[in-house]
Amino acid sequence: MKLIFEKGTPGRGLSLMPECDVPEVRLDSERSTPLHLPHVSENELTRHYTALCKRLFGVNDGFYPLGSCTMKYNPKIDEDMAALPGFTSVHPLQPAETVQGSLEALHLLGEELGEIFGMDTVSFQPAAGAHGELTGVLLIKAYHLDRGDTARTKIIVPDSAHGTNPATAAMCGFQVVNIPSAPDGCVDLDALRAAVGPDTAGLMLTNPNTVGIFDKNSLEITKIVHDAGGLCYYDGANLNAVMGVVRPGDMGFDCIHSNLHKTFATPHGGGGPGAGAVGCKDFLRKYMPAPLIVRTSGGFGYEYPEKSIGRVKMFNGNFSVCIKALTYVLTLGKAGIPEAAMNAVLNANYMMSRLKSKFEMAYDEICMHEFVMTLVGLHKDTGVSALDIAKGMLDNNLHPPTMYFPLIVHEALMVEPCETESKELMDEVCDIYLKLYEQAYSDPQSLHDAPTRTPVRRLDEVGAARNMILRYKFE
Amino acid sequence: MGSYVPTTAAEREQMLASVGIKKLEELYASVPESMLLKNGLKLPEGMSELEVREAVTELAEKNRVFKTVLRGAGAYRHFIPAVVRSITSREELVTCYTPYQAEISQGVLQGIFEFQTMICELTGMDVSNASHYDGATAAAETIPMCKDRKRAKAYVSGAAHPQVIEVMQTYCFASGTELVVVPAKDGRTDADALKSMLGEDAAMLYIQQPNYFGQIEDAAAIGEIVHAAGAKFVMGVNPIACALLPSPAECGADIAVGDGQPLGLDIAFGGPYLGFMATTGAMTRKLPGRIVGETTDVNGERGYVLTLSAREQHIRREKASSNICSNQALCAFAAGVYMSAMGEQGMRQCARLCLSKAHYFAAELEKIGCRLKYRGEFFHEFVTECSCPNCRKKILDALAAENILGGAEVEDGILWCVTETVSKAQLDKAVAVIKEVL
Questions:
Q1: Which CATH superfamily groups domain A335-461?
Q2: Which ipTM was obtained for this model?
């Protein structure tokens, strides 16, 4: 398909701007280099982008079981509410008395999420999950430094963690201590005990973990870290499995981030914007990003915590995303939140129960909202890899599961169906997965060749990295 | 209660039976009893769609939307062509994930490749990433790109946006980097002070163009000073101003960043906006975040993939160039649609309108006795002197009474912004209101 730069012709364009109604001004020194931008009519422009949108697959297009990504249905009312002019047309630096609705909305969402997290205060400044991690780990850093404890230079991260965890700890100036997981995929308590000490700043943990198992030892884990003087950070990537059932705060964690674009149903937008709400217990409140949104005598306003780590983003975070999450939480309410979690877990277990006749499960036990299959055996028998199976799914109009994660499972496919999928769809999907499994034995080449029905076929990623064509070059 | 769960009671029974359990609660057998939430969440009951629409709309109505906005300071109300919303509200685009499955994600990948190209064009730089959270975090993440063992100190102009400086400080607290603020003089970066401050340990300097006070910096001269000291020169630019001002590349920048909000995104109480980041070919591998590259498929067809991911956290873990994972893809896509709709001529026209109207407004304010605090060239923002907080309040209140959001309060003044959305008649009205209370 042509790039937009390859369409249209100079002299063509849209009529958007009015004539200047004041005397025109020129600067002493103006840009001399040309600015190559598209020159297309409105018709050409919308056709181009419509064509691009047709070369996409969203949650609205079908089953999207990306493990660890919680690709649940994105309710349309949430979009409508975020698009209200009362929210979209207010300036972030308006006086507080003129933006009481925005402040109340964030405050209300903070209270509701605080209850779900089991945390006392919530900030919405972080723009994404990794940004929330950065904020949370900085709270831990500020806490130790404030006590004059400069010896705590290490953050413990299990080897099953998302890459963002060790990357975040490193960005915050900590040395990362990777600890191996036990055979059951959970934290190896002995390894943890051996790792903690007076240099431990904290632990970053995802629970349910990245292999889809609830770590039953979480109270013991957080106690081991606390006894050593460290703090415990909860990575809320998998909160969807447990929201309203068990709270991170009650597992002994001190701070948390939650990806609103996962658990709270805001859309992913092709990779963002998300929002990474950060919650903490009261003793960390004074370090939270400034400002916090608080109730005041006359309504809602800003508070600058006394020992704040500072700002992590301009203004008030990804505000519109928060409005979508608020609409979602208000819709579900007290009963709907655990209902969503339980059905997410039920759906995952149902699919697992249907698939395990053929597919080897990395951990064959009741899972949480996702499960991991290992295709090592299939690969050995047939030469068909997890990647090949995933590409075969594309030809069946299915979005594949997450591939090759977590790193501790080989030939991994990680399936997270979410609570918003129906039994009959999951049955159809399971039939296709099982058919592909058979196909690996009967016609492996067809899977090596897949996909064949997509707008493009397998792409040369090595060539992309080597040739580094990262922009269109004008003649 | 509202719910998006499609499963009926009968289906649930079948599914539980398939799993081999009787009750939903048994799914949580691995959670210690003591930890389970006993009496449920202390939250209100859920709502029907009709009820939730009313409740949230009521919140939106508690906000005040001003007809005329003369405030910028990092968030700019520009005209947004209808095509931007029309295209960026398409379901496929809104609900898709990060394009890891390239074969079914060409729409996002190509859209971002086009966005990267447009950012390179605007800034004059060689390579752009797929976006960052916002202009401030993009600025902050340029520091590790420039830093090494010998050159460990970062510098930021005191004429940059205060919130950008704050975010840079937070990131520097994280990494243990010393961040030095170079003072401003007459509303611009003090070049003499800068010269005396930059030592052999200087990694980089960040300046904003136009700066926080709206003044146009002599960026090329500052760039020369920075390069003479062996450090990297980072410019934070307003993308609309880029259409008229010498590009960052023309000014010798090593990295150009900025907030893409003016490119078709609502001011929306602060977000989501869009950070952009572009650099020289030599620094490509230092870029944080996702990058889209062109390649071919097995049939030789042109296609696009996420590339150079060996820099990123999911591969490199603690050795990654950044922890960034989710970015602002949909906002970047919107910015691409905006720039396509505007074209070169539209972008220049928009910038010219901003420039001309701001100068008209400044001149009219001078006629009624206001004084400009700084005398240098400006783009679409400027500061009028007003040292008494009560006088500032009087002016802003009088404007608010006429449905005009006046400028942002800054030290001893008011920072005004005029974009193409404000007509001459509206500016004349604002001047008349201010004249009344002076």
A1: Aspartate Aminotransferase, domain 1 (3.90.1150.10)
A2: 0.97
